[in-house]
Amino acid sequence: MNVSPQVGRADLPPLSARSVVLSLLLGTHPPELPVKELVRAVEPFGVGGSTLRAALSRMVAAGDLRRTDAVYGLSDRLLTRQRRQDEAVEARTRAWDGDWEMVVITTTGRGPAERAELRTRLATLRLAELREGVWLRPANLRRTLPKDLAQVAQTYAARPARPARELAGELWPLDSWAGTARALRAHVADARLPADRFTAFAAVVRHLLADPVLPPGLLPAGWPGPELRAAYADFQREITGAIGR
């Protein structure tokens, strides 16, 4: 069973200079900004110019950013993360006909690190583990599974005999996820300072990545996912607009 992390007010530490830069660029399309825009954008979060420049140098050296003249942009690795973040906010779905995606791991002899990496990847695809080596979810997402997954697994369309809502409740901690989402929404509403709002919405994005995005009929009443997505989309437009001014 997948476990959604609990994110409460005590779990929202201040963002570092690196975190502020990454959050800004991950929410910007295209994800690149001149250094003068970055200096202006990070100032409300208590990040000074010298601190920013030191962070940018470290991030380029670490492969987080690429630099062209005085413009900094996300590296290819983090462009993949941005796509994941965009998908988390957009949650592109289709009408559900009752089919489930099933992924069965077929390779053996993998080490602990490889197994952990595969589990993380499958969870990122919003699949949940029914039992060891068997992952599934309702086939309601407008996406196709990566082709290279065939190297380690077989994929199937399935219709489990168990009631779909009961199965979904076993696979995902829906009440826990919803409770944390509501707490985050309240925290966002209470936050007034730019740094506090930025920190809160960074936690919102992390939580949205763990949203299973199930068909409405499988969710508890009053599911807060769409409301949390709308709040983040509004904040993203606000940040993008401020950068562009």
Number of strands: 7
In CATH, the homologous superfamily of the largest domain goes by the name: Winged helix-like DNA-binding domain superfamily/Winged helix DNA-binding domain
User: What is the quaternary state of this protein?
Assistant: single chain
Question: What portion of the residues fall into strands of 2 or more residues?
Answer: 5-15%
Rounded Rg: 20 Å
Q: Can you give the mean pLDDT?
A: 88
CATH topology of the largest domain: Arc Repressor Mutant, subunit A
Q: Shape, please?
A: globular
The top level CATH class name of the largest domain: Mainly Alpha
* Helix count, DSSP H or I runs of 4 or more residues: 9
Spatial gap, N to C terminus? 46 Å
Alpha-beta classification: alpha+beta
Total tally of structural domains: 2
H/E element sequence: HEHHEEHEHEEEHHHH
Account of the protein in words:
The protein is of the alpha+beta class. It is built from 9 helices and 7 strands, in the order H-E-H-H-E-E-H-E-H-E-E-E-H-H-H-H. It has 2 domains: 1-92 and 166-245, Orthogonal Bundle (Arc Repressor Mutant, subunit A); 100-158, Alpha-Beta Plaits. A 4-stranded antiparallel beta sheet has the order 5-6-4-7, covered by helices on one side. It has a 3-stranded antiparallel beta sheet with strand order 1-3-2. Strand 2 (65-68) and strand 3 form a beta hairpin. Residues 1-10 have low confidence and may be disordered.
